[in-house]
Every structure is written in C-alpha cells, then in structure tokens.
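User: Structure please.
Assistant: Input sequence and predicted structure:
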Amino acid sequence: MDASPRPEVDFVIVDVQTLPSGALLALAVHLLRRAGPRDTPAAQVALSAWRLRRVTDYAQAHLDEALTITMLAAVAGLSPRHFARAFTREVGETPRRWLLKRRIDKAKRCLADSDETLAQIAYACGFAAQSHFSRAFRRMTGESPRRWRQWHKKS
C-alpha cells in the first residue's frame, strides 16, 4: 500500500510501531493541533478617526454623484474590502446603507424647503432615477416622497 499523501486526501496512513518515540510524539502533537479549535483571534479591523472623517466629509460633499465603495476606499487610502469591513465595524452599518441614509436626509431637506420636482430632487441627491428614489424613500421612511412633502412642507 502506498503511504504517500494524495492531493485529495488530508491524512497519511502511518505504521506507528516503526516510528521512534520522538517522531510518534511529534506526530501526535501535529494531529492534535490540526484537530483542535482555531483559537487564533480574528484580526481587528479599525478605521481611524481621521480616515472616517475624511470619507464622511467627501461623501457629504459628493452626495449627488455616483459614489462607490472603491471610490470611498480610495479616499480613505485603504483597499475596498478592508475599508468596507472597517467602516461597518466603526459606524455600525455598511457604507452603502450609511450613504443611502445621508441621501434620504438630504432629500427630506429638499422636499421640505423647495418646490423642485421629485425627479430634480432625486438627481440632486444622487439617485439615478425618480423611481429608485421613491422606492428607497418609502423603504426608509414608510411614506412616499410626495406624501412626506405634504406633511412636512415649510410654508
């Protein structure tokens, strides 16, 4: 029987009687380490305060543009994956969700303070279409933009 490891097999059959006691002990320790729990802690992902402020300031100033995680990560000077994980850990929500909330907040101010059409407000807040804006607004507030405007319009 061939005792050489094969790529699809994770173990090797060994005749323990032919091993010296030191090799047997080393084999036992190796197997116990592999079978035991992974107690290596997950790497802490942190987003420093200055990076977070830089990203949030940039996003607030460019809400009307098509912002992506890649763009925000570049502003922070991090990879997109690292940025998304760090942002979520620091802020408590994903960058996409945070950005959507900021856009809806801006839309609420526009709805209350201006007489612009819903399409104009949608584009000014970074939505590609009025329909997308209306769906997102309703999901976040529970009301349509038109109804929200009727209730909150400043005279």
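The mean pLDDT is 85.
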